């Protein structure tokens, strides 16, 4: 532990099975987790986990980045009005 709820775990894996350096940061009720490729320093994955109580350790959300690079074209903007609930 490096202080203030920050943890450097060394090796960790993302959802695609790639190995990187895992780091975590604890908030009041959530833990954020990053997996970073050590040679390129590219972000492989971000994850958010519940912290404490019955839900401790439950995955709340995750983004896994399989490729990173410039886009050849910009995506079309959705100009339709928002849907009502």
Termini separation = 45 Å
Structural class: mainly beta
CA-based shape: flat
Total of helices: 0
Helix content: under 10%
The description of the largest β-sheet is: 5 strands, antiparallel
Unreliable spans: none
Q: Could you give the count of β-strands?
A: 5
Strand content: 35-45%
In round numbers, the mean pLDDT is: 90
Spatial strand sequence of the major β-sheet: 1-2-3-4-5
Radius of gyration based on Cα positions: 17 Å
Strand/helix succession:
EEEEE
Describe the structure using short key phrases.
85 residues, mainly beta, 5 strands
Spell out the blueprint of helices and strands.
Layout: E1 6-13, E2 19-26, E3 30-36, E4 43-50, E5 59-64
Antiparallel strand pairs: 1-2, 2-3, 3-4, 4-5
What do these coordinates show?
The protein contains no helices and 5 strands. With 85 residues, it is mostly beta strands. It has a domain at 6-64. The chain is flat and about 45 Å long. The N and C termini lie far apart (45 Å). The model has no long low-confidence stretch (mean pLDDT 90).
């Amino acid at each position: 532990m490096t202080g203030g709820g920050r943890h450097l775990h060394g090796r960790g894996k993302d959802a695609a099975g790639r190995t990187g350096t895992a780091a975590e940061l604890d908030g009041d009720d959530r833990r954020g987790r990053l997996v970073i490729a050590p040679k390129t320093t590219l972000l492989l994955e971000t994850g958010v986990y519940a912290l404490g109580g019955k839900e401790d350790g439950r995955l709340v959300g995750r983004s896994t980045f399989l490729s990173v690079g410039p886009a050849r074209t910009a995506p079309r903007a959705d100009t339709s009005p928002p849907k009502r609930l």
